[in-house]
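Handout, page 2. Input:
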Amino acid sequence: MTDSNLAARAERVKNLVAIILTVGLGSAVVIFFTAQAPGAGPLGDPNDSKRYLRDMEMVGGKANLLTTQFREWLGSLFQGRSLAATVGVLAVLLALAVWFFGMPLPPEPPREGEDS
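Output:
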């Protein structure tokens, strides 16, 4: 590739990263200010009961408790203001990946004994 092609490609990657960050972080800000706190269920949270947790452990062991806690944590990432943080982090990670894998490598310097 020539230097002008490399520069053009680098400029396209920079523009794409800027678009990803603008849309992703802008969406995160909109979600943050429009999100409402999730309402509590009419019966409360069953995980607050020691008896419920004991019964879960008796049926499925510690793995059942850990799996349930992980599933609830993962589900909480996609509700309310936590969703805004999730969208923001994913936008930054996507922009970094595009930047890392999209930027062209600099041309190799000529080796000794080669004509340029």
